[in-house]
Amino acid sequence: MIYDNELIGKSMGTIKHLNFDIETRAIGEICKALGHPTRIQIMTLLWKRDNRTCGEIVDLIPLAQSTISKHLLELKKASLVKIKHEGKKTIYSIEVDNLKVLKKYFGNYLSTIEIPEKQKSTVLGTKHKLKGRKSHLKQYNYQFPDRRIKMAL
Question: Which residues form the HTH arsR-type domain (predicted)?
Fold first, then answer.
């Protein structure tokens, strides 16, 4: 890959960019915005039923209203959601055109990838068994249902 001469000699802390085409930059921004599970969850909720307020989303995702607002702003910056004001309410809906760009890109990209037959059976037949699964959850302060019941008694 050939890089722009202006990148040579730049420190690692400096933001580097190439002159990518508009579609590539748009896809990068969309993927960046979708890089957080909460934003994916918000997009899923909006896809299932468009035109939701922040309050409706907060009712469905157990996070603070300010956190949801921050994620909605990131989705707006990436042009994944549209905002419509109705009186005091702000209504959020999906920006379908940008999702079409993403779908087209991933459709084209994924159609070029082939999984060898040997790996297909491994990938499709794999059951996810993780050792130490509960200890992994403990580090994130996950409360197991049976413990909550015992603690309540």
Answer: 19-114
